[in-house]
Amino acid sequence: MINRLKYCARCRDNYPFAGVKTMSNKEIAIYDCALELWGHESQIDMTIEECAELIQALMKYRRKQGDHDEALESVIEEIADVEIMLGQMKVLFDFQGNKVEYAKRRKLRRLEEMIYDAKGEG
Known about the structure:
mainly alpha
């Protein structure tokens, strides 16, 4: 970790990361129930499908086909669907998502350093 970074306002406001955020017990229970009810393979397939729907919504938004507000709302809805499915995948592959959260924070730090370097402050 580099202590000398001059953070942009968004980075600075959220840094340093304090602890590892885990899912609530309620979230874990809901995701676990979904996995048990519909099965691991089915929920993996659903995650793939929801990611594809997000890709499609983003492409439509970028092309601005049709109503712009409708395209934006579609992106928002698909992000929510993907986040829910990713929660299930965290439970399936990492139980409480601690390893995923650790990897995410490590990658965010790397992104932060890349931003710093790109601004020529390195």
